[in-house]
UniProtKB/TrEMBL annotation:
UniProt-recorded name of the protein: RNA polymerase subunit sigma-24
Domain RNA polymerase sigma-70 region: 25-93
Coiled-coil annotated spans: none
Gene Ontology MF annotations: DNA binding; sigma factor activity
Stored PANTHER family: RNA POLYMERASE ECF-TYPE SIGMA FACTO (PTHR43133), RNA POLYMERASE SIGMA FACTOR HI_1459-RELATED (PTHR43133:SF8)
Record lineage: Bacteria, Bacillati, Chloroflexota, Ktedonobacteria, Ktedonobacterales
Keyword Transcription regulation tagged: yes
Name of one Pfam family that matches: Sigma70_r2
Gene Ontology biological-process annotations: DNA-templated transcription initiation
Amino acid sequence: MDRRHAREDARLSADEVEALYERIVLMYAQQLIFFIMRCTKNMADAEDIVQDALLNAYHALDRYTLLQVRSLRIHAWLYKITWNVYLNHVQRTKPPPGVSLNTPEGELLLDLDADTHDEQPEIIFERFELRQELQQLVDALPESYRVVIDLYYFGDLSQQEIANVLQRPLNTVKTQMRRGLQMLRKELQAREEESIR
């Protein structure tokens, strides 16, 4: 076996694990927190779940070889770990009696576009209101549809990656996405008709 193959089969050094972990936390922690926040409706729980998920990822990286790390689709891998930690959390705790559709004070589930500094305040506010309304509509969907739509549109995962994360058949994910979008369209249409009256 040559030196290159030996290196690829070797585990990462402690410094390499630390550096990779720091990059992962910087790139994905906030995105994962927002995703879990939409599931739990509780920022403290979301932060705890993501912290546990990131620790699980760190321990996994410590066991991986260089070749395994290179072949990892880190984005989808992190969502899968986070989703599993969330499911464990749900099994350990009782769901709250009611779920508020409002976001906590000061928390933005969707960031505004980066190029908004030249826009008029009215346009920025209108876009923010539209995004909040859309997020509330998504939050009101049944969980199986909401999670799929969250992962696809807000988590930027492919349908196949969502199927892997949720451990569901790809056709089930496609069906849930289609039905969830139909429900959103129907609700938006009802709201439009109501505002016309």
